[in-house]
Amino acid sequence: MISIDFFNPRIDGGIPTERHELLLRVVAVFLISQDGRELFTEVEFPVVELAYQLWRWQHSRDSARNSFSYESMESEDKLLWFSPDSDGWTIGSGNTPIAFHLDMAQIQNASERFIERVLTEIPKKLGVSVKEVVTGGE
Q1: What is the pLDDT of residues 98-130, one digit of tens each?
Q2: pTM for the model
Q3: Partners of 92 in the beta sheet?
């Protein structure tokens, strides 16, 4: 099973009040693992911005057939991507593939779990609501 997760969330700077501050200044250690084996870790990762992008992708038409690419407003590189390959789907970061031959259902489930954790854990641990920013109020 593939897992997209985070830990040790924090606010980079003062309490964010603007939308762009919530997207970019709530950071955490970001982790992708498969069957308990760590495949990718990134510190100071903007988890709310990723949750927002994943939520938009999940709620787009035909997300099960469309690749996903996440570039932060503060980065020039693709920080995370999902792309179909000859035998399933690949997850990667930048130019580096991380996990191969995945079912789209695995990626969608991992994405949903990540979004849900951001929506519940960030308000609990940091005292800032992010639901409106991530889901647009839905």
Answers
A1: 999 999 999 999 999 999 999 999 999 999 999
A2: 0.94
A3: 81, 97
Q: Which residues pair with 84 in a beta bridge?
A: 89
pLDDT at 61: 72
Q: What are phi and psi of 56, to 5 degrees?
A: -60, -45
Query: Is 16 inside a domain boundary?
Result: yes
Assess if residue 66 is contained within a domain. Answer: yes
Q: Which domain holds residue 65?
A: 2-130
- Measured torsion, CA atoms of residues 83, 28, 115, 33, in degrees rounded to the nearest 10: 50
- The string over 98-123, giving b where at least 16 C-beta atoms fall within 10 Å of a residue's C-beta and e elsewhere, is bbeebeeebbbebbeebbebbbebbe
pLDDT for the residue 138: 67
